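Form 7-S
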Amino acid sequence: MLCTLMMAMSDPIAVIAILIALIAGGGVGALVSAKKANKKGFEEGVAHRKMEAEAAIGSAEKEAERIRTAAEKEANDRKKAALVEAKDEIFKLRSEAERELKERRGEMSRQERRIQQKEENLDKKTDQYERREEALQNKLHAADEKLAEAEALKKAGAEELDKMKKSQLDILERISEFSREQAREYLLTQMDADLTHEKAVKITAYEQQVKTSCDEIARRHISLAIAKCAAEQVSEVAVSVVPLPNDEMKGRIIGREGRNIRTLETLTGVDLIIDDTPEAITLSCFDPVRREVARLALEKLIVDGRIHPASIEEKVDKARRDVEKRIKQEGERAILETNVHGLNPELVRLLGRLTFRTSYRQNVLNHSIEVSMLSGVLASELGVDANMARRAGLLHDIGKALTAEIEGSHVAIGVDVCRKYKENADIVHAIEAHHNDVEPKTVIACIVQAADAISAARPGARSENLESYIKRLQKLEEICTSYEGVEKCFAIQAGREVRVMVKPEIIDDEKMILVAREIAKQIEDEMEYPGQIKVNLIRESRAVEVAK
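Output:
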């Protein structure tokens, strides 16, 4: 009974029926009715569930059939697409292969035609060479025949000439009472003496004539040019020294583990030399513009007091802008002072860069301005275009602004730069010839060369280090002592004059002139020096007797 009730409880309909039966009839009748109702509900539930299961199975079979059909259709579509793609790829590869084969066949055809043409040309050239060789052989054969005839004639003539010469010499020997060797020696000695004397006399006369007509004019022109251009000369150095307020600043500039000094050197390309020098730092660099940027940046950092990589970068950028501004101002100042207008802005900027460039410790921009003024004065005195002369003088050392960036001499760099910016051909030639790299062919080139020498040779204008100075004096004395008959040699006046003592028994008065010219010529060819060098030969004759 209990089991029946529990089974009935599992079905809601049966439970409801049982409850109704209990309420209406109660007792056993209710229980019987409930059992019957429960059985009927169970059978109906089983039938319902069976129908649901059969419906689910049918639905699943239909879904499986649908999926299978869709999969077969999709597989067939993909197969067809793959076949189409494969056919397209095969057609594409076949087309490319045919095209490549066609191109190769065409290239082979062209190569075959070229080879055939070359073979034909070679055949033609071979025929020409053979014909030329045959003609040359014929000419050589004819020349050999003529040469043999000439040799025969020469031999016959030489024999006849020897006979005549011998007979004449015999007559001369009888007349002069000299042997052949004695006569030859006498004639050569007389000829050498006569030629030496004639050369010395002609050289002396020519020099006197040239000096008489040119010295006074040249002296007047040069003196006038120097007087009109009395520029101040200041020697400069190739390093910069930055003063410090105290030695503690050195440690701040170096920074933790050297990061500050590394940053500054990396940004400027300048070496900072921090040594035992009190309250000073030395900046060293081959490029004066970089050195000036580093100097300004370091001074700004010292004044600011905040020294770290970010502030260093900021101060370097500002210093670089200040230097560019000063370069522009200096270039404009140079063209205003020299009254040279119409220059390309890039040439003006390069002129401004020369204010940081030195040569033999002479400021190159000031030197260029002075050469420009000297050239203008000399050109005015000689009746030449003074404007062009001043322009050539101002630009003659423009290449020195780029020697730190471009390889080559400053002359070659200057010529290339001026040609690039369409300067006059005469000005370009003057720049190229001012150091005798080429022979001067115009009056302006000679004027610029002379003005450059005047500016460089002025006392105090240039200086050189002690080692180079000593080597130059030693080389000067070596050249002079290499000549036979030179007893002593002394370089004086800072190498601008050399005094040579000669042996009077070897070098006479007339030969002194020739030796002096030869020494001066060798000095010009083998040495480089500012200005000019005077060669002064001294010959002293002494007569010594002893009184007993």
